[in-house]
């Protein structure tokens, strides 16, 4: 199933000139990763402290797009400019999980949004990324199988925050969107696990 992640090569091509400029100015891959995580935590705290301020939620889709760009940039800096490191790999994986939790968990405090669905979604999302990484441990590659990976989650939560931010009252549409995201995340978890095992020779895909 096609996912937003499939657009990554084209997105990276658009960002490549910016990467060259960042290298000239001494920006590092780890610096970009840590900056993205820091801003994500800060925005999450602002939302958590002001759960009734719908206008703040409008910052979420904007930041999620910028964070997606920063995630692409740090990867290209590492691969294409000799900045790969073991520490960078840890920052990259851990930073994504921390940023997701920091940004999405505060939405459970927004009136009318089902907190159980939000928490379950964050927990399942962490499990999805963990399976993707564990695939390496069992002899496979880092798995990014869909249909609801990191970029797709960002789109889903960005849409949710956009609708809430423009004043749409939470209701059946909000519950429905969260449940669709939950089901797609669960399917992604199963897909990554199956493909990881198949790649490692454990099962037939």
From TrEMBL:
GO biological process: phospholipid biosynthetic process
This protein's record includes keyword Flavoprotein: no
InterPro entries: CDP-OH_P_trans, CDP-OH_PTrfase_TM_dom
An example Gene Ontology molecular-function term: phosphotransferase activity, for other substituted phosphate groups
Positions of transmembrane segments: 27-49, 56-73, 101-134, 154-170
GO CC term, one of those recorded: membrane
Alphabetized Pfam families for the sequence: CDP-OH_P_transf
Keywords per UniProt: Membrane, Transferase, Transmembrane, Transmembrane helix
Keyword Mitochondrion: no
Name of this chain's protein: CDP-alcohol phosphatidyltransferase family protein
Lineage of the organism: Bacteria, Pseudomonadati, Pseudomonadota, Gammaproteobacteria, Chromatiales
């Amino acid at each position: 199933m096609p996912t937003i992640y499939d657009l990554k090569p084209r997105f990276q091509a658009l960002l490549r000139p910016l990467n060259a400029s960042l290298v000239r100015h001494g920006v590092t891959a780890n610096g970009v990763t840590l900056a993205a995580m820091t801003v994500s935590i800060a925005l999450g705290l602002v939302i958590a402290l002001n759960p009734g301020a719908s206008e703040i939620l409008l910052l979420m889709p904007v930041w999620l797009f910028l964070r997606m760009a920063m995630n692409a940039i740090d990867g290209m800096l590492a691969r294409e400019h000799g900045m790969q490191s073991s520490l960078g790999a840890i920052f990259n994986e851990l930073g994504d999980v921390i940023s997701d939790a920091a940004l999405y968990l505060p939405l459970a405090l927004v009136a009318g949004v089902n907190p159980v669905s939000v928490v379950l979604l964050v927990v399942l999302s962490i499990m999805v990324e963990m399976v993707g990484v564990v695939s390496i441990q069992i002899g496979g590659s880092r798995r990014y199988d869909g249909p609801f990976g990191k970029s797709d989650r960002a789109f889903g939560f960005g849409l949710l925050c956009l609708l809430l931010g423009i004043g749409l009252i939470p209701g059946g549409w909000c519950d429905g969107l969260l449940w669709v995201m939950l089901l797609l995340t669960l399917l992604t978890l199963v897909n990554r696990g199956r493909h990881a095992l198949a790649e490692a020779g454990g099962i037939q895909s």
